């Protein structure tokens, strides 16, 4: 597909056809990563990292575990 860059303020804007946006699963307002790789502009969606509790807990060791903190006795209807 050929398209034309357009001026947007002091920058240039590029319109992305809906079919291409759907193919890479991006939508208006979504963050994308824009890079130049070997003289070509590459645009990719920013995908957040997903975490599993079991994986996070597996990284806890006796060396990186914090000791408990005493916050004194309850002041109202808190139950400790």
Write structural notes for this entry.
- The protein is an alpha+beta fold and 80 residues long.
- It has a domain at 6-58: Ribbon (Pemi-like Protein 1, Chain: D), CATH 2.10.260.
- Helices cover 15% and strands 22% of the residues.
- It has two helices and four strands, in the order E-E-H-E-E-H.
- The chain has helices at residues 18-23, 53-58; strands spanning 6-8, 11-13, 32-37, 40-45.
- A two-stranded antiparallel sheet has the order 1-2.
Features:
two-stranded antiparallel ribbon; alpha+beta; Pemi-like Protein 1, Chain: D; single chain
Strand content: 15-25%
Low-confidence region ranges: none
Q: Quick one: how many beta strands?
A: 4
> What's the CATH C level of one domain?
Mainly Beta
Provide the CATH architecture of one domain.
Ribbon
Order of helices and strands: EEHEEH
How are the strands ordered across the major sheet? 1-2
Task: Indicate the radius of gyration in whole angstroms.
Answer: 24 Å
What composes the largest sheet? Answer: 2 strands, antiparallel
Overall structural class, as computed from helix and strand content, comes to alpha+beta
CATH fold title of one domain: Pemi-like Protein 1, Chain: D
Helix content: 10-25%
- Overall pLDDT: 90
Number of helices: 2
The separation of the N and C termini measures 64 Å
Q: Shape from CA axes? A: elongated
